[in-house]
Amino acid sequence: MDTTPHILIVDDDREIRELLSKFLERQGFRIAAARDAREARRLWPLGRYHLVVLDLMLPGESGLDLARWLRSQSDVPIVMLTAMGEETDRIVGLELGADDYVAKPFNPRELLARIRAVLRRASGEAASAKEPPAKAIHFAGWTLEPGRRRLLNPDDVEVPLTGGEYELLTVLVERPNRVLTRDMLMDLLRGRQAGPFDRAIDVAVSRLRRKLEDDGRNPTLIKTVRGGGYVLAATVDRAA
User: Fold this and answer.
1) Helices marked H in the chain — which ranges?
2) I need a labelling partner for 101 at 20 to 30 A (CA). Which of 176, 187, 189, 240 fits?
């Protein structure tokens, strides 16, 4: 079986599709490319994709609608391509479960770095490179199993997490009762500078709160610190 990461590129700009396809193939990836959502849906069952590079500004069915459909099919990582000024679409895309984004125009090497980082998070390579993880981490009745990258609710039922949600939760449970600013979280999660209007962390926290059944208007587990950031307000116990 070919284990080379298989990437689906969805962009209506032929020049960008061809440029990215050739560039990523030279980096060792297998590539499939679609010019719109209809073609992407046709290609989807034909390959086991490890990641989707998705332009949000597609003709016909929008990239946001396609992202919603992809999320209904699997937890495949999604890296969005957005216009420089389209902050609203970027935020909605992150709320739908996209893992990262790159604003157009972009440097292909920046996109490559983002793709590799998302694939590492999805595969758990970053965690396996460190010391063996604890068998289970317990907090507020919830259980996080790093070895299996899964979350169990107080009723012992698994709650699906995207790669980005899992990484955010891991960062929080490793630093309980400690205020983490948005810049700290951005650095810990993506290792990059966040722009002054970047709401990626706020969106990720909102998504994670929903998964943890933590009321966003009056959260008791992941609390917002005014002018500071976020804090996981819970006692964390680690199983040996």
Assistant:
1) 14-26, 37-43, 63-73, 87-95, 108-123, 125-128, 163-173, 182-190, 200-211
2) 176
List every span in the chain annotated with CATH 1.10.10.10: 137-238
- Give the SS3 label for residue 12: coil
At the second CATH level, the architecture of 6-123 is 3-Layer(aba) Sandwich (3.40)
Rounded to an integer, what distance in angstroms lies between the CA atom of residue 230 and that of residue 31?
38
pTM confidence score: 0.60
pLDDT > 90 fraction of the chain, expressed in percent and rounded: 45
Please write down the HEC assignment for all residues of 146-177.
Answer: CCCCEEECCCCCEECCCHHHHHHHHHHHCCCC
pLDDT tens profile 47-65: 889 999 999 889 999 999 9
CATH number of the 137-238 domain: 1.10.10.10
